[in-house]
């Protein structure tokens, strides 16, 4: 893997909102996650992989992102990342230190320009790989809606060290921090929110099997199955009980850093976002669900510059 960013991967995302933990059975019994930890008003799920906090739900009166969770290779990369972000005048929530939650490890937190909390963690608890055929291995990517795509793209590339993989017209940009085509993508919108969170299956058979499991339980695909142009990944989207859009995906493109050139995929060509032409364009209801609920940003923000 080429280390162009000190961030080497996406661990997952934790969401907050009213009565979110009531949706546990959807994520556990249908979507295919496994409870890794729960306490009071918080539940955390793992996938088949070793990450203990792949997806989390926290009860809170306000809908939004609790934090997006990234990893670095080791503690010295973590310290170097912190230095880099202080230099860039990022809003620091906490300086590098030990985490005292169940996943432990070492890291820090910042706010992005739209007040999303980003948590960076290394040396965390690693669970034993628990491969269950037909169930998600990990969180593949998070797509964020933003009212200022240029500013957020600049933050992810110039400040965090991500690279642009591709564009979908002037509506979306796909960003990578490792050799996977995108771990974060940005989509133009009226407000900051989560567009969707994608979970990776290790084969096309497991991807289709997951769609079948949902269908048999009465949850039909809301968009898909199809294969996207940017990233070349098969997709199947569902709307979860709290209204969050979640995606099954697989076979996401691995980038060759020496050869890859970002491309602008046309939004006028129906095959661009739907290579197989099986899914058709997203319905109005799907587009509305993907707008997400406006996220006012992480509460209790601290306006320290980490000095
Ligand atoms: Fe996606």
Structure, described:
By secondary structure, the chain is of the alpha/beta class. Mean pLDDT is 95; it is low at 301-307. The protein folds into two domains: 7-122, Roll (2,3-Dihydroxybiphenyl 1,2-Dioxygenase, domain 1), CATH 3.10.180; 138-291, Roll (2,3-Dihydroxybiphenyl 1,2-Dioxygenase, domain 1), CATH 3.10.180.10. Strand 2 and strand 3 (42-46) form a beta hairpin. The protein has helices spanning 24-31, 75-87, 149-159, 204-216, 284-291; strands at 7-17, 34-39, 42-46, 55-59, 64-72, 91-98, 106-111, 117-122, 138-146, 163-168, 172-176, 184-188, 193-200, 223-227, 234-239, 245-249, 263-265. The strands form two sheets. The protein has a nine-stranded mixed beta sheet. The site of fe (ii) ion has 6 residues, from strand 9 and strand 13.
How does the helix and strand content classify structurally? alpha/beta
CATH architecture of the largest domain, by name, is: Roll
**Could you name the CATH homologous superfamily of the largest domain?**
2,3-Dihydroxybiphenyl 1,2-Dioxygenase, domain 1
At the first level of CATH, what is the class of the largest domain?
Alpha Beta
